[in-house]
Design brief:
single chain, about 260 residues, alpha+beta, Alpha-Beta Plaits, ten-stranded mixed sheet, 5 helices, 10 strands, about 20% helix, about 30% strand
């Protein structure tokens, strides 16, 4: 029996899911829906490994998963059959056969997220599940200056959820920027890996600086203090998107996602 490893690029609207990870029976999760759909194509159980487990309400345009199977199917059958059996808030947008040493999680060399915040006095009725909202004016120049202090390898304990199960809090921030597009404030962030709630905690802290309540250099002080209680609030889940997972070229995978830009 010859086993094959299949990788897939996934996108989903997380607003109606209790996160990505499989949970108890009756709890709607992205992994649960994906495994159910792909198991129908395989006519046997399929178990997935993902690049990054997203929380309740968080979206993805560039999630990557893999599974092993002995079933003989054309690659397009996994995509077409999978999408036929999936609910409308999840879709598979590419499929590749990969080597046995590939792991959607452990082979990744970076993850990228985009956070979209609607910055207007009145909340959006149309995009309420796709963006977060702040009615207070935000200075994105100050926010971007503070964000640059996070570049490099640091201990990100100040931005780590108390439920985080990672062995340590050291991560390498590879790129980060904050910009304004009309009434939207957009955070783009890339690192080798992320801690639980790390992006949302960074965004919540940047919002404090954007409101003028703390100076730019406060970000440096928080990094040094390594104390979650001293940093800003955890920003809402609705504005967060996993947009890309990067792998070494040897695996031959396409860019895994696209940039959401509803402005």
């Amino acid at each position: 029996m010859v086993m094959k490893r299949i990788a897939l690029g996934i996108e989903y609207n997380g607003s109606q899911f209790n996160g990505y990870q499989l949970q108890s029976a009756g709890t709607r999760t992205v992994q649960g829906e994906l495994e159910k759909a792909l198991s129908k194509v395989a006519d046997q159980p399929v178990r997935l490994t993902c690049a990054g487990r997203t929380d309740t309400g968080v979206h993805a345009t560039g999630q990557v998963v893999h599974f092993d199977t002995s079933v003989q199917r054309e690659l397009k059958a996994w995509m077409l059959g999978g999408n036929t059996n999936l609910p409308r808030d999840i879709s598979i947008h590419w499929v590749r056969q990969v080597s046995d040493d590939f792991s959607a999680r452990f082979s990744a060399i970076s993850r990228s997220y985009r956070y979209i915040l609607f910055n207007r006095k009145v909340r959006s009725a149309v995009f309420q599940h796709n963006v977060s909202w702040s009615f207070e004016p935000l200075d994105t120049t100050m926010m971007n200056a503070a964000a640059q202090l996070l570049i490099g390898e640091h201990d990100f304990s100040a931005f780590r959820s108390s439920q985080c199960q990672a062995r340590h809090a050291v991560r390498e921030m590879q790129a980060i920027s904050v910009k304004r597009e009309g009434e939207y404030v957009i955070l783009d962030i890339k690192a080798n890996a992320f801690l639980h709630h790390m992006v949302r905690n960074i965004m919540g802290t940047l919002m404090v600086i954007g409101r003028g309540e703390q100076p730019v250099l406060w970000m440096h002080e928080l990094l040094q203090a390594r104390d979650r209680k001293k940093a800003g609030m955890t920003a809402q889940a609705a504005g967060l998107y996993l947009i890309n997972v990067e792998y070494p070229e040897e695996h031959g995978l396409p860019d895994s996602g696209w940039l959401p830009n509803i402005s």
